[in-house]
Amino acid sequence: MTGPRSTYLTAAGFEVHVTEWGDPAKPALVMWHGLARTGRDFDEAAEALSNSYFVICPDTLGRGLSSWARDATKDYSYRTFGDTALGVLDHYGIGKTRWVGTSMGGLIGVTLAAGRLKDRITHLVINDIGPDIPEAGTGRIAAYVGNPPVYDTIAELEGWLRENYAPFGPNTDAFWRRMADSSARRTDDGRVTVHYDPQIVTQFTHHRADLDVWDAYDAITAPTLLLRGEHSDVLPANVAAQMIERGPKPRLVEYAGIGHAPTLTTEAEIRLLREFLAS
Predict the structure, then answer these.
(1) Which of 78, 94, 191, 199 is a plausible cystine mate for 28, CB 3.0–4.6 Å?
(2) Residue pLDDT, tens place only, 14-47
(3) What is the C-alpha separation between 278 and 46, in angstroms, rounded?
(4) Beta 121-127 vs 251-255: how paired, if at all?
(5) Structural domain boundaries, residue 231
(6) What angle do CA 232, 269, 38 make, to 5 degrees?
(7) CATH of the domain at 104
(8) Closest alpha carbon to 195 in 152, 149, 163, 156
(9) Is the model's pTM score more than 0.90?
C-alpha cells in the first residue's frame, strides 16, 4: 500500500481530493502545497517518506481535483482551509500528525499548530514563507495567479511553467513534464489552462489578515523546521532571522541558488525531512 492512491472525500461540505501514500496504520504526515499548486507537488518526498508514514497530500479548495469555492470571497480563506484540513483528519480518524507545508501550506500549518491543532501537530515544517509577506512577493504571485494563461497545447503550458516557476530550482525535463501533467486542465473550447480557479486570488484582496500571523507563530510550541530559498522574495532573510528568534525558534536551513520555493524533491531535502520528522 505504498501509493499513490487518489481519494475523494467530503470535508467541511466540499469534495476534497487527496493523494495518499503508504500504510494508513503508520503515523500520519500531512503535506500541504502552495497557493496555485496541488498535492502532487510532493510526489517524490511523499513516496520516499511513505516507508515510515501514512502521507496525505490534499488539493486545497479551488486547486487540482478538489471543489471550487461556493463563494470565492469567503471560502478561499485560511479559516475554510483549516475547516477542510480538520475534515480530512476526521475522515481518516487521525489524532496526531506531522505537517509539512510549502508557502500557503506552511501558513495554514502555522495557524492550525497555534490554534485548532495545537495539541495534534507534533512536528511542523514551514517551507519558504513567514508570518509577514512583503508586497513584492504577494504582488508577483497575484499578478500571474489572477491572470492564468490559455494555450493550444500542453507543450506551451509546460514552457510557461518553466518560466514562471523557474525559482523552484530543479531544471530537468522529467520534473517539468510532471509539473505540466499535474497542472493542466482543458477549457470549454478544448484549449489548455492551469488547474486552479482564478478566483483564488481573492486570498490577497479579501483576506489580507491571513498573511500577517505573527501572533499565531509566536504561540506555536511544536518542534519546527524552517526552510528558505536563498533568493526567495516571499520569505526575506530579515523575516527568517526574526523567526528563528521568536515563537518555536526553529532551525533554519537555506538552499543556495533557489528562490520561492524549495521543491523538496532532492535526496538532500528529503533526508532533512526524514531526520526532522523522526526526531
Answers:
(1) 94
(2) 999 999 999 999 999 999 999 999 999 999 999 9
(3) 15
(4) unpaired
(5) 5-133+209-277
(6) 70
(7) 3.40.50.1820
(8) 149
(9) yes
